[in-house]
Amino acid sequence: MSSPAEILDWDPARREELGRAALDWVLGWFDAVGERPVYPEVSARWLEAGLSATLPLDPQDIRTVVDEFAAHVVAGSRDNGHPRMFGYVQSSGTFVGAVADFLASALNQNVTSWRSAPAATTVERQVVGWLRDIVGFEGDGLLVSGGSMANFVALMAATAAAHPEVARRGVRALTGDPVVYASSMTHMSIPKAAAMAGLGRDAVRRVPVDAELEMDAAALDRAIGDDRRAGRVPICVVANAGDVNTGAIDPIDALADVCARHQVWLHADAAYGGFAVLAPSVRERFAGLARVDSMSLDPHKWLFVPVDCGCVLVRDPSALRRAFSYSADYVDVVSSPDMSEYAFWDYGPELTRRFRALKIWMAFKAYGVRAIAAAIERNIQLARRLAELVDESDDFERLAPVPLGIVCFRYAGGGGDLNARNRELLLRVQRGGKAYLSNAMIGDAFALRACIVNHRTTEGDLAVLLDEIRRSARTVE
Ligand SMILES: Cc1ncc(COP(=O)(O)O)c(C=O)c1O
Fold first, then answer.
1. What are the C-alpha distances in Å from 467 to residues 54, 384, 417, 435?
2. Is the pTM of this model over 0.90?
């Protein structure tokens, strides 16, 4: 009878067999980037049939399992690293990042605190320091699962800062209804964060935007003043530093002035756009970013690291402690002078945490930040080129400015109901598998949204995208 350890750890030969099969698959996957369809030709019924099975109580041959992974899991996956994956602001992924995640899982650190994971904690503290330096911010923070969680953590910190009793008594400690200010372009994670923080989605007040889709600082000023006079409690202003729809960057410096005047917390949602400070052509657009009270960043967007990896930075980390620090006997840090008492659970919602920092640490060392900066700049130049191609054409129409790497446009050839036509086009292009787009509403106009957040995209890919939309347009009656 084999022991559980023998059964679950396998012997070296079997480990090597699986490890080599996995490495072969990964190498093949990266070798063929761009050759596969962006979107798989699969139906929900086919996937359910292929992947449904009874609970596997007994072991199966591992080669069969790997084959099943390739036949159904891989075949049923969108290729997010494809150079013509224009769908979302998301990670194109790298080989180094994939290897780092593999190493992190093998090392299996539980990054709760220095005591539990001395090296991983030190690496994460180093990486957070690097990210902070990149965006020129003074403060501290931690890695979280992504931008949504970073926004939530920041909103919790802002709420805790609004009243010292909130963490204990909840929002009933506040002297009036809480208000969170955000532009109409704000990511959906902000109302979700308001709901999770107990403020409620209705607490989010939409501040109008100007013609560039940037928050109107004067309107914000008036709204905060009105709310204060009515006895409401302004909690936080959320500035877009690269909005998810168009890449709009709110006038952060002007918003910081308003917030300073009213003594309100300013958060920058820089999950998508923040790392564009590395790109010389747009750097000055982020003036004021150093003045915010907190900031969300997503290394799993424009640092090209694999999901999941977000970061929240806060100027005054005691606000995080106020929101999250809570102790229990079983986590009491018993330490000696050689040990650090640092514990991530004092600064964020998670206790058990994976070693997310390793993929940033390895990527920065393997590529150098200069190469990553050049890739971001290249993406921005490509977005400008796509905007030019749209503007120069007779059949496309651009619907929004292009401050970063997102182009919102529509096919206007053929006339008719442009919203209905472009909705149909979007589906056809997605299903065609040559390029993948998403959508946004710009006012009342349905826009095709091309996001260039991918170090593999070239100018040739832009031409293929436009050709593909035109080709699809010919198939729409
Ligand atoms: C501006 C912005 N904020 C927040 C998020 C949410 O990030 P995540 O998907 O990592 O939770 C996104 C995602 O696209 C975003 O673009």
1. 45, 18, 21, 10
2. yes
